[in-house]
Structure formats: structure tokens, C-alpha cells
Amino acid sequence: MPIAQCLMSIAYFCQMTLQYTFELLGTFFFAISGALAIRDHHNDLFGATFTGFVTAIGGGTLRDMMLGSYPLVWIGDIHFLYAILAGALTAYFFFRFLMGLRKTFLLFDTLGISFFTILGVEKALSLGVRPEIAAIMGMFTAIMGGVIRDVLTNETPVLFRKEIYATACLAGAILYLVLLNLDISRNLNLVISSVVIIVVRLLAVKFKLALPGFKR
Amino acid sequence: MPIAQCLMSIAYFCQMTLQYTFELLGTFFFAISGALAIRDHHNDLFGATFTGFVTAIGGGTLRDMMLGSYPLVWIGDIHFLYAILAGALTAYFFFRFLMGLRKTFLLFDTLGISFFTILGVEKALSLGVRPEIAAIMGMFTAIMGGVIRDVLTNETPVLFRKEIYATACLAGAILYLVLLNLDISRNLNLVISSVVIIVVRLLAVKFKLALPGFKR
Amino acid sequence: MPIAQCLMSIAYFCQMTLQYTFELLGTFFFAISGALAIRDHHNDLFGATFTGFVTAIGGGTLRDMMLGSYPLVWIGDIHFLYAILAGALTAYFFFRFLMGLRKTFLLFDTLGISFFTILGVEKALSLGVRPEIAAIMGMFTAIMGGVIRDVLTNETPVLFRKEIYATACLAGAILYLVLLNLDISRNLNLVISSVVIIVVRLLAVKFKLALPGFKR
Fold first, then answer.
1. Which of A30, B59, C180, C184 could form a disulfide with A56 if both were Cys (CB 3.0 to 4.6 A apart)?
2. Which residues of chain B neighbour A214 with C-beta distances below 8 Å?
3. Verdict on whether the full-model pTM lies above 0.80
4. Helix (H) or strand (E) run with residue C101 in it
């Protein structure tokens, strides 16, 4: 991107609504966390950009393909692609710095899942599905990008790791739907539900909280 | 689900046609078999429900997304979600009992694939595709939920295991199409084709039948 | 396929345009490379046909599902299914011969990715997306069939192996878009861009060229 286009993009960002900024930021955070997830056996710039891309767009793409909602967000609006490239390049050039910060990966990922959960619920509701389906779609928007990335890189999907992860998203999505039903203002609801997801997820990691397992 | 809603759901079931009952039962069986497929490294209630969900809806979802048929079955009709939850909870609370029954997993899975194959063929035909494509779609409806589950849980997909599995579904789908062409009544055709899939699959497991391999 | 239908198919092929022939040939090559990719633990005829099928249709299917373009190519035109079956049977009956030819797999795969990249770019452009998206779609058309195959068979996706692979497709796609902008004739553009992908890929394998990795 030449400099002029960069500046124009920045100006463009400034006039955006809160929601659009959140969507682009969530995409950027997810692309960083996806690119940082790279492992030794596939550690070049393309691989990092690809995993960043898949992590960032996977959940929303699956949601929209399941709901038959076209065009997909990142196909209809090229700024998402730029946000992903910016995230992948940030991960590449500040790799040591970002990895040096303990819990960096966790933080970016947690911000990403909390934004995307609520945005996914809202998108699904706007397409007229029932609340139960909207809650699932919110969770899918948040986690399926990471799940697809993990499948592609032969990791055990984040979904099945011990600490509460997808469940935090599902709880946040349900909370959003309950507060919506109680006529809480949308911006307040957005903030409360996002924060609950972030707090639940961070507490789960800190205290290694997990759901009850199968008895065998 | 509160008790009143449970009773209403049961009453609702009773008035359904044979096909709809089969669809919900197939979904329920698949959710049980998916939840039972859970392994040690991802053995909590959420993980079991998720694998049950993916196993139950994966095949039909892929079929409908490939055929461009919206809304997806489980998004348009909330009873499928309840059938999946019922299956996952059944697997969770009767885990020891179900695992104690030898071949339980096999039985539920075999019932699931036989119902779903025929339903998938019929759905594809109703959308106007050629019989060759309808046969593939029937097989996909039956097996792809399990394949996606196996990919997510890092198992070798059921597809590639020795005994005849997907081939039984494909054979049943082709048989259904042949009998349809011979003007056999639909209900009779449904029963014959389903039973053939079940018998072929169970015989294949019992006698370890497999297709000829590559010569090397 | 009875003989008469075979002959009719051959006659049909002969009257096709260059593009259509390329599409069917690419599908045939991909089906061979997919079927040859089979490993010991899933080495029967069905498994080979299935991996051939997934390799051949995976990329285009994902592209069209992302772009909301229906019917999918292989659902709307049955000749693609026949090309895949022909490829899988070729791989099965000439297995030793094909494996004996060193680099056979590489050659078929390279021809497949070069054809499919350009065809994917053109299809995406014809659906009205921006060039950046069309380049990604071209690359996806070429590589995602192999990626899905690798995921299903528990291999590390071809995408993440050392030598330049997906990057060659992306470079070819971008070259095609640049030449298109320069008003080069379409057929010439098609040949140049395809050949560049083939040459880059083969040189990368021969000299083990790779992109710069993460510094750690």
C-alpha cells in the first residue's frame, strides 16, 4: 500500500462508527493471533499470513455461508483484507516483541472472540433467525476461525482444550440476547456482554476453570 | 427445557409423518454417536455436545450449502436443535450404560447413516439435480458429519477405515434410485434401501469386509 | 460407463473450447494426483476415488460457495464427475506405472494448480469481485482441494510445506491481473500466466526455494 492510500485508509477509519471499528479491530487482532500461532514446520511469511487470514475470516465466513448471506463481509468490503495484512505484517515484524510479552497471544485472541461473538449474534438476528440459532452463530463467528486454523495446522482445536473457551462465547451471546430482551440500550449491552466474555475467559485461564467432564 | 415444553415436544413428535420422525430420530442417534465418540483430551460436556452437534448436522449442512438450498434444515426448524441436545444429554447421563452395551456406538451410527443417506438422496432429487449427483449427496449427508467430527478431533476419518462404510451408503443410495426408476412405492423403497445399508454395514463389520486395495 | 457413452464423451470433448478442455483436464489431473496421494491406512478403491474427488472439486467448490455462485460447476455439468472417475480409475489401474515415473505426482499436481489458478481468477472476476479478491480466489481454486485432502488424510497441508507452492499460484494470479490490465489478449495471458506458475513451482522444488521464515 502506498503512503497516500494508507493515510486515506486512516482517515476512513476515523469517521467509522464504533461497530465498524470493532469489526476491523477484531479482524486485526485475530490476524495477529493467527499469525503468531504459526509453528516451526510452516513458519514462512506466506504461512503466517494464511493462518492469520483463516483465523480472522473463518468464523464469519462459515456463519454467512450457513445463513446464505452474500456477499461475505471480507469480499464485499476490501478494508477487512487490509486489516488482515496489517495484522500479519505486525506479527511478522514485531514477532520477538509480541512473543516476549507474556500472554500477548491470549489477550489478542480474547479481544477477538469477545468482539466477534456479539457481532455474530447481531448479524444472525438481523437475518431473522431464532435467538437459539443466533447464539450458536455468535459462538461460531468467534471460535470457528481458530478451529479451522487448528485443523489446518494439525493442532488439537482450541475448542477441546481444557479451559473454558467456546463456552465463554456462548454465555456472552446468551447474556446479550437476555439483555436485548430487557430493552437495555444496544451500546451498553455490547460493552457488558463483551466484558463478561473477556473476564470469564481470562479467569478460566488464570484459575484453570473447566466444565465437568464425563464420568468414567 | 422445562417439563411442559418436553411434553409439548413429545405430542408434536406423535403427529409427525414417518419421514419427519426419521429425520429427528436420525439426528438424535447421530448426536448420541457423536457425543460418545469423545476422547480423553476433550471430554467435557460442551465438547461432547459440540461433537454431537457437528456429527448430526454436518452432512446435511454440507449438502445444502453445496446445493445452495437455504435455510439449512436445523436453522429453519428448531426441533433439530432440541433433538441434538436431547442426544448429547442422553450420552452424558447414560454414558456408562451406553458404553457398557457392546456395539451401541456402531448401532446408533448405522441407524443414523441409513436414514440420512435416503433422506439426502430425496432432498437432492427434489432440488432437481441428476441421479449421479443425488447419490453422492445422499452419501455425503450420511458420512460427512462423522468425517468433520473426526477431522476436528484428530482421528483418522471413519471414511478411510478398513470396513465398508461410505460404500454401503453409496450402494443404498444407488439402490434407492434404481427402485425409484422401477416405480416401487416410496415407503417400500425407503424401507428396503435403509435395511440394505444397515445389513451391508453390519455384515462388513462382523466379517471385516473391505474393498480391494491398491496393488503395490 | 458403457463404451458408446465413452465414445460420445470423447466426441463431446473434441468440440469443446480450449477453456473447457483445460477445466476438464485440470480436473482429471487433480483426480489422479489426489488418488495417488493415498497412503497405506486408507488404500482401497473407494478411498482413492474419494481423495481424487475431493482434490479435484474442493478448490472450485469452496470458491463458488464463498462467492454464492450456484450451481457448483461439477453439479451443473456431469462431465466433471466423469473426468474425476476417469482420473481415479487411471490412478488405480496404472498405479505402479505412474508411481514408477519419478515426479509424476508433482507434474500432474503442477499442471492442475496452474490451470485452476487462472480459471479461478476469471470466474471470480466474472462474478464482479475486486482484483484483490479474485487473486485470492484463484489461489484458493488451485490449492484448497489439496488442502482439504491433506486435512482429511491427516497430512500436513501442502500449503505449509517448505517449497513455494501457494505463493506460485498467487504470483501467477497477480501476473494475470496485471497483464489483463495491460490489454494483453486473453489466450496469450492464459498461456503466460500458467507457464509462470509451472516454472516457478518446478524451480522451487528443484532448488528447494522457500520464502523467508520468522526470525526466532
1. A30
2. 38, 43-45, 48, 92, 95
3. yes
4. none
